[in-house]
Amino acid sequence: MNIEPFETNSQPGIAERAIDTATDVSRTLGEVTGALRAAVDRLSGAMEDARRPGTALSTVAAITREAPLASLFIAFLFGIAVARRH
Predict the structure, then answer these.
(1) Which residues contact 63 (CB under 8 A, 6 or more apart)?
(2) Are 26 and 20 in contact (CB under 8 A)?
(3) Is 9 helix (H, G, I), strand (E, B) or coil?
(4) Is residue 55 within a helix (H) or strand (E), and if so which, with residue range?
(5) Against a cut of 0.70, is the pTM above it?
(6) pLDDT at res. 41
(7) Alpha-carbon distance 49 to 47, whole Å?
(8) Inter-axis angle of helices 56-66 and 68-85, nearest 10
(9) How far apart are CA 83 and CA 53, in angstroms?
(10) With 0-12 CB in 10 A as exposed, 13-18 as middle and 19+ as buried, what is 40?
(11) Which carries the bigger pLDDT value, residue 33 or residue 5?
(12) pLDDT at position 8, please?
């Protein structure tokens, strides 16, 4: 009796492809999460710098605290002006 050796298929099976895909997705999500975390850190740093006393953002924040309705009205008018340009 002539027994032929078991031949292995050179193409990956569905389980191996699923594992590879899951690994790739996991790696991509890790990279995206790292990039997003770095962007949030940079934005947080920029906001902290902008809130220092004497800067424009601190002045606007102070005015908004003192007169919130007037600030809202000005922001509304500014939004209308910007919307009409586009």
Answers:
(1) 71
(2) no
(3) coil
(4) none
(5) no
(6) 95
(7) 5
(8) 120
(9) 31
(10) exposed
(11) 33
(12) 58
